[in-house]
Amino acid sequence: MDSDATVVTDQEKYHPSYNSPDADLILLSDDGIKFRAHSLILCKASNFFREMFELLRPERETQEDAIPIGESSLVTKAMLDIIYPGESDPSLPTRGFKIFRRLLSAAERFRIIRVNDYLRLLTTTSRFDNKPLEVYALACAFGWEDEAHWLSLKTLSLDLKTQICEYLESLGRKSLVQSFRSSLGSKKADSRRCEKVGEDTN
After folding, report:
1. Every domain of the chain and the residues it spans
2. Which residue intervals define the domain BTB in the entry (predicted)?
3. Can you list the positions of beta strands (E) in 56-170?
4. 111: phi > 0 → left, psi -120 to 50 → alpha, else beta; which?
5. Residue 102's closest CA among 73, 145, 124, 131?
6. Residue 67 to residues 26, 36, 42, 92, 99: CA-CA distances in angstroms?
7. DSSP three-state, residue 16
8. Cα separation values, 91 from 17, 57, 69, 78, 99, Å
9. What is the pLDDT of residues 28-70, one digit of tens each?
10. How many CB atoms lie within 10 A of CB 49?
């Protein structure tokens, strides 16, 4: 009875979307969820995994052989959803920018270009039209030069408040915060100069 309960508990640790019996490896998220995956798909999507799998591995993975990847189960599933072929769009847990940043950071670490390209394209859709500053922060942080250029013009009309700087600091990009604060200071200085010119002409 106890052994059966143990088996059930262990099976529940596998994500239901990634528990295929024909998978040849197991990924382990940092919150203890396991994902059965296919090395062929991972190797095509990621140079990191391709180089890692060039090393000798056991023919069949066991619980002890699970590969810890240092990401939450939410990020791991979203990353796999993007790189696995499918007829529908990947299912992301949220459209929030925190999960985007975590996904993009994971994509950088594992060298998965498809994740970067997918999120880069997604942020250009109409649903993000009212979030130019947040998209600009991602563009600057992850090297989307074209988007950063035209979004920088779009953000000039924004009033950069303290909470926006706090948001950018949460992205871990202090240089970007300093740049935005400098931009805010420049706009205030320009405004004062315009007011001074107006006074002088009266």
Report:
1. 123-202
2. 23-92
3. 67-68
4. left
5. 73
6. 6, 10, 13, 23, 22
7. coil
8. 11, 31, 20, 7, 12
9. 999 999 999 999 999 999 989 888 887 755 555 454 578 899 9
10. 23
